[in-house]
């Protein structure tokens, strides 16, 4: 993995990272916003401590653990990645509630256009703020966007220690089961 200096990471602040999307995906995973490592590499969930890629594999979504640089392979499994807020920051707490709400509005339009079967938002707090749903919990939601169902997953950041790799994979697996039963 490429090692970046603090200055190189800081230079990635506010950079945009292209979505990995296509029409009609089974699941569109939605992160909070790109971190600086993701922005510096151009690959989603690129920070080594992020548990997105291991959880994706351990839950059965992918036959092997993909590396962030292999993100386009997700499309062959009917999966994609986007973010609630497009701009990169060092920490999600640098985002304003207004950015989350505008991100939720833009995400809703994107989902309506792409029509995935499931939208999986990675982070209950981000979901609550973006969609003004203060009572949301991890799991399937009653909200739909057109015909797209919504599932809230735990944030896979290594900072979210409440969720272990095993419990993350279990929750991702619940979504995978729901997505394959359709």
Automatic annotation (TrEMBL):
SUPFAM superfamilies: Uracil-DNA glycosylase-like. Keywords: DNA damage, DNA repair, Glycosidase, Hydrolase. Residues 18-179 form the Uracil-DNA glycosylase-like domain. The keyword Nucleus does not apply. It comes from the Bacteria. The keyword Lyase does not apply. Its EC number is 3.2.2.28. InterPro entries: MUG/TDG, Uracil-DNA_glycosylase-like, Uracil-DNA_glycosylase-like_sf. One of its GO terms (molecular function) is hydrolase activity, acting on glycosyl bonds. It holds the Pfam family UDG. SMART domains: UDG (SM00986), UreE_C (SM00987). PANTHER family: G/T AND G/U MISMATCH-SPECIFIC DNA GLYCOSYLASE (PTHR12159), G_T MISMATCH-SPECIFIC THYMINE DNA GLYCOSYLASE (PTHR12159:SF9). This is G/U mismatch-specific DNA glycosylase. The gene is mug.
């Amino acid at each position: 993995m490429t090692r970046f200096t603090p200055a190189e990471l800081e230079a990635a602040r506010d950079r945009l990272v292209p979505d990995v999307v296509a029409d009609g995906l089974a699941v569109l995973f939605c992160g909070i916003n790109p971190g600086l490592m993701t922005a510096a590499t151009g690959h989603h969930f690129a920070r080594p401590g992020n548990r997105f890629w291991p959880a994706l594999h351990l839950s059965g979504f992918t036959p092997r653990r993909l590396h962030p640089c292999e993100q386009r392979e997700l499309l062959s499994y009917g999966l994609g990645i986007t973010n609630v807020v497009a701009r990169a920051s060092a920490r999600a707490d640098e985002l304003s509630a207004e950015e989350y709400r505008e991100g939720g509005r833009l995400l809703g339009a994107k989902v309506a256009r792409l029509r995935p079967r499931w939208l999986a938002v990675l982070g209950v707090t981000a979901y609550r703020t973006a969609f003004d749903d203060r009572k949301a919990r991890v799991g399937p939601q009653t909200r739909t966007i057109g015909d797209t169902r919504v599932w809230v997953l735990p944030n896979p950041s290594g900072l979210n220690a409440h969720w272990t790799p095993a419990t993350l994979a279990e929750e991702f697996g619940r979504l995978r089961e729901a997505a394959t039963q359709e």
